[in-house]
Design brief:
- This protein is an alpha+beta fold and 157 residues long.
- The chain is 41% helix and 16% strand.
- Helix 2 crosses helix 4 and helix 3 crosses helix 4.
């Protein structure tokens, strides 16, 4: 795992959100914030327990992640009808490999065919229908075969 956030930066992030730093909260934050994956609560719990660094219950992991979500530190995403969590809260799209299930973040500035005004045109709303509504977020997910799986398929052919 590439360390993007060290101990001090995680403590600062939590304190800035008025979250009391406890050993379990720190461990969950360290794992979530430094991961490029989009784990479910179960996956996160298993990873923490396997690391042998902590004895933490599934319920504790759930409650901590929900605390982080309510503070705006992570967001819930739906992958194959299962709830996962994403610590990248900046606007971005996802690419999900249909072979291996790997989820990759795609920055919106790399999607030159999408602009903010055109996102609304993907919906069937008219301006009249939208006038009394506020769109909070838009989720864009691409499905396909990732580069690693394509290489593997090509080497087997």
């Amino acid at each position: 795992m590439e360390i993007k956030y060290d101990k001090n930066s995680i403590i600062k992030i939590l304190k800035d959100k008025k979250i009391k730093v406890t050993p379990n909260r720190f461990k969950v934050a360290f794992e979530l914030f430094n991961s490029n994956e989009h784990p479910s609560i179960d996956q996160l719990h298993q990873k923490l327990v396997k690391s042998n660094e902590t004895q933490i219950s599934f319920t504790s992991v759930y409650n901590i992640v929900k605390l982080f979500e309510n503070a705006g530190l992570v967001k819930e995403i739906l992958i194959e009808n299962k709830i996962h969590y994403d610590s990248n809260i900046t606007p971005h799209a996802h690419f999900i490999c249909k072979n291996c299930g790997k989820v990759q973040d795609i920055e919106l500035d790399k999607l030159n065919f999408i602009d903010e005004k055109k996102l609304i045109s993907f919906k069937t709303f008219t301006e009249e229908e939208l006038k009394d509504n506020k769109i909070d977020s838009v989720e864009i997910t691409f499905y396909g075969i990732c580069g690693e799986c394509l290489k593997q398929e090509n080497s087997e052919a």
